[in-house]
Amino acid sequence: MTCQELADFIMDYVDGNLPDVQRDTFEKHLAVCPSCIEYLKSYKTTKMVLDDLGCEAKENVPCEVPEDLINAILAARKVAGQE
Questions:
Q1: Cα distances (Å, whole numbers) of residue 56 to 11, 48, 59
Q2: What separation in angstroms does the CA of 20 have from each of 13, 36, 75, 78?
Q3: Which of 14, 39, 64, 83 is most buried, judging by how many CB atoms fall within 10 Å of its CB?
């Protein structure tokens, strides 16, 4: 599995919707790719923030959310006492 393929399947992986064979391949790639581990962490954080805001994932949302934006949202939540 390539990094791009991992990105293509990340939503299904996080939601638990990948078939066993694809999930195993996904996890084998994660075991050897620190960049994809960070991407997965970022994706999960973004999903958590959107869920907390009551937002639904949209197909037209960019694949990559800037890490600075995620950090700013998390910092704002901390200041507001929501963390």
A1: 13, 11, 10
A2: 10, 19, 37, 37
A3: 39
Q: Fill in the amino acid letter for 31.
A: A
Q: Which amino acid is at 53?
A: L
User: For residue 6, what is the DSSP state?
Assistant: H
pTM for the model: 0.61
CB 58 within 8 A of CB 48: no
Q: Which two tokens stand for residue 18?
A: 């990948």
* Residue appearing with tokens 């694949």: 63
